[in-house]
Amino acid sequence: MKNLSKYLMGGACAIALTLSTATAIKVYAAEPQATIAGQPVDLTYAAEKAIPAVVHIKYVQNSKTQTIDVQDDPFGGFFDPFGFFGNPNDNGQGGTRKERVQTPKKEATGSGVIISSDGYIVTNNHVVEGADELTVTLNDNREFSARIVGTDKQTDLALIKVDAKNLPTLPIGNSDDLKVGEWVIAVGNPYNLNSTVTAGIVSAKARGLGATPNGIESFIQTDAAINPGNSGGALVNTRGELVGINAMLYSQTGSYSGYGFAIPTSIMTKVVDDIKKYGSVQRVMLGVSGQDVLTYINAQKDQGKDVDLGTNEGVYIATVDPDGNGADAGLEKGDVIIELDGKKIEKMSELQAAINAKRPGDKATITYLHNKKKVSKTITLKNAQGTTKIIEQADIDVLGGQFRPITEAQKKQLNISYGLEVLKVNNGALKDAGINRGFIIQKVNDENVNSIDELQKLVKTASTSKEPVLYISGLYPSGKKAYFAVPLSE
Questions:
Q1: pTM to 2 decimal places
Q2: DSSP letters of 379-412?
Q3: Among 20, 56, 111, 126, which one carries the catalytic annotation?
Q4: Active-site residue flag, 280
């Protein structure tokens, strides 16, 4: 089970990233009855709809042999302090040597939500990241192997698939329609307790926590109990609609002690659609940094400074990337974003959610205060690579090569412990870069490459990055070292 804690508010509390609950289901039950003021809320309809569509996910990462750099111990054997004889294990890396270690087998559990009857399941990225095996168990105890279709670290979402038909699903609701104080249930598998339902209210919306580096956060906050094992599970309204994917709990102990946080379906739907259609999430970035206006004003007051920005709501702009979308809109340091496409923006989490809904080539009207004067500008949004095109995730085939892990004989002959040999070069990125048959790839973008799967992941990651280039280093059978830059875009 994966837990992650991060201290916030000066260490006063922690955020534990836990395997969250998921629920989605197709069950025929009586329609929910209208809520009467002052009367207890009946959540049985929502629970009946959700439980069949929430699955248990078992994660397995097999034991692996990895090569790591280890600092030489000068007192553990022959020591040549003046370097007269050289270090046969150094390989020019300054007192380090390569050592092979065996990693332990890892297992964890989480939850997921069936969103289509043909086997697509939404969960959290942290539930499946790094998995060699994924096993999905339905509420009726049917068991399936699952494959990862796509993941998105920035929103902590993942889409997986099982080979099945006619599965129970949950209808997807509009999380934007949720109201603070509205009743919701969380469904998942905390502590391996399958099909657990907890209830609470929506405590807040568009909550940003800063729990994920470069993450997109606009959480639904709820006091429905969420515990380790709930990650990837469902947050469901009283109408039996999926409104969020549970992802985090707010705790000093790592267990539930007040609040849980779910990724709204307004973010989930776009991420899932992009993964299905393009293989990766299509994203635009404003190219600005900043913070909530009130946070900025209070920080300035703490320094004895009075600030008047013309508003106490919105997003204060601290820096602007000259090549980004924000610069195209005319944003400058000190400006305050107050609207996007006519929708009021009160804080950074709302701006992140609104921008995340956009794709390259979409238009957006940004309204902001410049020297307390209102300005609106409509721009065409660019991707991280500075174009308005959709970025489709590249496959290893773009390299135009065939590969295999190096043999034991090659390791011995070249005094290396890992690498991929290029067996054949066809038309493609390798040929264009001048890489020939027989070259042994050891590093790509500063990452060791031990297997074809690792190379595939690096190609996919680089193809959608701001700089779609593979920086490849390695050596030829003669021992000659070489370094290449391999562009992945035209």
A1: 0.74
A2: EE--BTTSSSS--PPP-GGGG-EEEEEPPHHHHH
A3: 126
A4: no
